[in-house]
Design goal:
alpha/beta, Isopropylmalate Dehydrogenase, 2 domains, binds 3-isopropylmalic acid, binds magnesium ion
Length: about 400
């Protein structure tokens, strides 16, 4: 391989650096075992980042509903809302960073964050091809669990996905190596603690919520090292939860089974590596009315961030339809936020109001265009419904 000697050496040098970074990260996560109990904090600071595209519109709608629900706690000083400006694609492009330093410093002063969707640059965009702000925030704040519920009562669907959020294909997703003009290589990362902590959270959730089945989803028959390790650790953990039936699936057949009306009702809790979790949660959300209706929690030991599962919908903005954007994804994220900081009764109330507005009463309907109501009108409808409960 004399011919490629220089290219191999240059690539090996970059690979060595990646390994050093990942081993440092492993040491860090191995050392940080303590989880914050958010409910027991004297004061909770909720950071609010609007993001890009339709982000500011739907985030503002969710912030208003939340502030309304927490007005007493805000007045007493237990809860503080803090709007954080600057997590925009323009600022990120100008600073050349997925999260500008000043924004990151502000984020770290909060306990939890409500975040609107942010534009993820890709090759060919007018923006520099920097890392996604979502992915960067998950890594910077070590938000290891992406928890995504999907619930469609009339179809018997009640699923909670536990997507690993800091590793897998995403861990060094923006640091793959072009070894030569003809050869590109990306990397998939699985660590022992990275897998144990997501598996633990999923099994504990199942136990605490009376869910008697957990499904582990990988492609361990082909991706033998990293998916194999992920599967083995989840299976070992399952032994500590004998009352829960654990089964294992490959991602391809699981993707099919979610469409199988006879089988899909049986699934309850899922644990998946990052990329499979990303893909399958968009599919799952479709049964509930689309990604616009699905919220997600990004849980870490020190911080947590709550967001929609979808992107910033630049086309809606370009076509002048931003005001018709659906706030339900951010409102569902707000439900998860309330529950995470210890206001379970308020979380249940907001979830109930959303079910009424989205699935039962449907006095106003969001269509994403002027054939339906606006984002603000829908948020006001939710508030009115909340007040009537
Ligand atoms: C999600 C999104 C992000 C992801 C994008 C915007 C980087 O699709 O939260 O599911 O891939 O994780
Ligand atoms: Mg996604």
């Amino acid at each position: 391989m004399e011919k490629y000697k220089e290219q191999i050496e240059a690539a090996a040098e970059k690979f060595k650096k990646l390994l050093e970074e990942q081993l440092e990260r492993v040491d860090r996560i191995n050392a940080s075992k303590e989880s914050t109990d958010f409910a027991s904090l004297d004061k909770i600071v909720i950071g609010v980042c609007g993001g890009d595209g339709i982000g500011p519109t739907i985030t503002e709608a969710a912030r208003k509903v939340l502030e309304d629900m927490l007005c007493k706690e805000v007045a007493s000083g237990r809860v503080q809302f803090k709007v954080i400006e600057g997590l925009t694609i323009e600022n990120r492009a100008a600073s050349g960073k997925a999260i500008p330093d000043d924004v990151l410093a502000e984020l770290k002063k909060c306990n939890v964050i409500l975040k609107g969707p942010t534009t993820t640059p890709r090759a060919g965009d007018p923006w520099p091809n920097i890392e996604s702000a979502n992915v960067a925030m998950r890594k910077e704040l070590d938000l290891y669990a992406n928890v995504r519920p999907v619930c469609v009562p009339e179809k018997g669907i009640d699923w909670t996905f536990f997507r690993e959020n800091t590793e897998g294909s995403y861990a060094v997703g923006s640091k793959g190596i072009h070894v030569s003009d003809d050869l590109g290589v990306d990397f998939v990362i699985t660590t022992t603690e990275g897998t144990s902590r997501i598996a633990r959270l999923a099994f504990e959730y199942a136990r605490a919520n009376g869910k008697d089945r957990v499904s582990i989803v990988t492609k361990a028959n082909v991706i033998k090292t990293t998916d194999g390790k992920f599967l083995r650790i989840c299976e070992e953990m399952a032994e500590e939860y004998p009352e829960i039936t654990t089964d294992e699936w490959f991602i391809d057949i699981m993707t099919a089974k979610l469409v199988d009306e006879k089988r899909r009702r049986d699934f309850k809790v899922f644990i998946l590596p990052n990329l499979y979790g990303d893909i399958i949660t968009d599919e799952a959300a479709e049964f509930q009315g689309g990604v616009g209706t699905a919220g997600s929690a990004n849980i870490g030991k020190k911080y947590a961030m709550f967001e929609a599962i979808h992107g910033s919908a630049p086309r809606m903005v370009k076509e002048g339809r931003a005001k018709y954007a659906d706030p339900c994804s951010m409102l569902r994220a707000a439900v998860l936020l309330l529950s995470h900081i210890g206001y379970q009764d308020k979380a249940d109330k907001l979830a109930r109001a959303l079910d009424i507005c989205m699935f039962e009463e449907k006095k106003l309907v969001i269509t994403g265009r002027d054939t339906g109501c606006t984002c603000d009108e829908f948020a006001a409808y939710v508030t009115e419904t909340l007040n009537s409960l």
